[in-house]
TrEMBL record:
This is BNR/Asp-box repeat protein. Gene3D superfamilies: 2.120.10.10. InterPro entries: Sialidase, Sialidase_sf. Residues 142-278 form the Sialidase domain. It holds the Pfam family BNR_2. It comes from Symmachiella dynata. PANTHER family: BNR/ASP-BOX REPEAT FAMILY PROTEIN (PTHR43752), BNR_ASP-BOX REPEAT FAMILY PROTEIN (PTHR43752:SF2). It comes from the Bacteria.
Length: 385
């Protein structure tokens, strides 16, 4: 059930949000019997007002049995009913997976699945500590026309370039001109092979996800020393595309402030990546009706999950008010060692998703450890006048 926020927020933080409520979308109902953690939520609001969420369930953060599950809500996301796994196991392969969902104008749901083939590395994590290379990955699309109750068998996506692996960053982005974008970043193969270099890009489909014959580059450093992770692409009201990404300096082994880039021509060209001034990870933007940009992200210079309002003047980014949502008074939620593989293994929260409800309120969901169990927590709020 929903609960109003009490005094857990910083007393001296500027109050940009009102009517804050919070609750749990999913938590292991029997943690004393079985290990079942929840990660990486994605929430969609259907045309009838009902909501569907997907998230990953598994024994641990990189467990080989991590699979995408589905829940539904009929009360504006305050309570959730677990429906079960989205897709069946893959015969003959040891596969873990994660996913994100998009709702189309006609109510069809499209799930972008990221499947990790663990067959050759059953006793390893997702990434090789020596090379930072990833296990083989595959993108696939599953579809639902009955509000997420049943799903089509996942259909594999043929990438328009060799990754060899790719990152799952966000749901499919549907543009006003009908194109579908799959924002992602290249990732090294298990042994370190990296023929396409480190780049943030977006696959492009002109036939609603049936084929993905082309892509465009969004962010890439000249020396190939910067990694652009957890990238997102949104369309502004004036037709420009805005991309944001968490930036990691692979030479100096440190995070840089989140960067952004803009396209004035539908993605064909992009402005040079520039700093947002926000030092964080897994930043997710939502374009508001008044053209402001709401960002929710895992902050690295101050603990916790934060909301940040920003706006653009021409192509320049300006930060406005900020407010913590969760974990601002806790320690040990992130790590900043030189090994990013090690840092990934000790994360304790992140990957927020944002959607707007029919009444104009904002709904945010993310994963975080509470009482030694990773849960999917949600926040609902409005903006202070």
């Amino acid at each position: 059930m929903a609960a109003p926020l009490g005094n857990s927020q910083a007393a001296d933080a500027p109050r940009i949000l009102t009517d804050l409520q919070t609750g749990v979308l999913y938590k292991n109902p029997q943690p004393h019997l079985t290990s079942r953690h929840a990660y990486f939520p994605s929430v969609a609001v259907l045309p009838n007002g009902e909501m569907v969420a997907t998230y990953m369930l598994g024994e641990a953060f990189e467990a080989v049995n991590c699979r995408v599950h589905v829940s539904q809500s009929t009360d504006q996301g305050e309570s959730w009913q677990v429906e079960g796994p989205l897709a069946a196991d893959i015969d003959g392969q040891l596969v873990s997976e994660s996913g994100r969902i998009t709702v189309l104008d006609d109510g069809e749901l499209v799930a972008l699945l990221h499947r990790h083939d663990r067959t050759a590395h059953p006793h390893e994590g997702l990434a090789n500590p020596e090379t930072m290379g990833f296990v083989p990955t595959d993108f696939a699309l599953a579809r639902s026309t009955d509000n997420g109750q049943t799903w089509s068998p996942p259909q594999s996506i043929t990438p328009p370039l060799v990754g060899p692996s790719f990152e799952l960053c966000c749901p499919i982005t549907v543009l006003k001109d009908g194109r579908w974008l799959l924002p992602t970043s290249t990732w090294r193969g298990w042994d370190g092979e990296h023929p396409s270099g480190d780049r943030m890009l977006a696959f492009v489909s002109h036939d609603q996800g049936k084929t993905w014959p082309s892509y465009f580059d969004v962010m890439r450093s000249e020396r190939d020393d910067l990694l652009y992770w957890e990238s997102k692409v949104v369309e502004l009201h004036d037709g420009r595309l805005l991309a944001v990404a968490w930036v990691y300096d692979n030479t100096n082994h440190c995070d840089l402030p989140n960067h952004y880039a803009l396209s004035h021509d539908g993605g064909a060209t992009w402005t040079a990546p520039k700093s947002t001034g926000l030092l964080g990870q897994t930043m997710t933007p939502l374009v508001l009706a008044d053209d402001r940009i709401l960002c929710v992200y895992r902050r690295m210079d101050s603990p916790g999950l934060w909301c940040q309002l920003a706006h653009l003047e021409a192509d320049d980014w300006f930060n406005d008010d900020a407010q913590p949502l969760w974990g601002h008074d806790a320690g040990g939620l992130t790590a900043t060692d030189e090994s990013m593989v090690s840092n990934f293994q000790v994360l304790r929260f992140g990957a927020p998703c944002i959607t707007q409800l029919a009444d104009g309120s904002i709904y945010v969901a993310f994963w975080g450890y509470e009482d030694c169990v990773s849960v999917i927590r949600w926040f609902k709020f409005r903006f202070a006048v």
